[in-house]
Amino acid sequence: MLRNKIGDQQARVEVLGKLLIAVGEKPFLLRYGTGKESYYMVMLRLSPEDIERLAKQTGKKTTLVSFGKMKLLPLQLEKNLSPGEIEKKFYDPAEEHWTGTIELTQYK
């Protein structure tokens, strides 16, 4: 078990990404911040049908993040958030922008 909070959080996200790859998904890794202040999230590309189905299942408005033409669903593992929910300290849904520096890469 890792003993530092950032390392633990990153490891959980890495495991989720690999599990999604194992079931045929093509997830993205989003890194928010830099260095010791980094925070990681898994992002999934969704079709319009997937978006509609998720909204019906959860009964909540889902936050999707746009990267060019892609619409990505954030999967934030911390704080018991539902798929599509992001803490406001990371992303402002009203303004549709990140509150800090991000990097997006696709898992391979």
Task: Give the gist of this structure.
This protein is an alpha+beta fold and 108 residues long. The chain has two helices and seven strands; from the N terminus they run H-E-E-H-E-E-E-E-E.
Structure description:
- The chain is of the alpha+beta class.
- 27% of the residues lie in helices and 28% in strands.
- The strands form two sheets. It has a five-stranded antiparallel β-sheet, covered by helices on one side. The protein has a two-stranded antiparallel sheet with strand order 5-6.
- The longest helix has 18 residues, at 5-22.
- The mean pLDDT is 84.
Which features would summarize this protein structure in a list?
two-stranded antiparallel ribbon, 108 residues, 2 helices, alpha+beta
Helix content: 25-40%
Shape: globular
| Helix run count | 2
| Gyration radius over CA | 14 Å
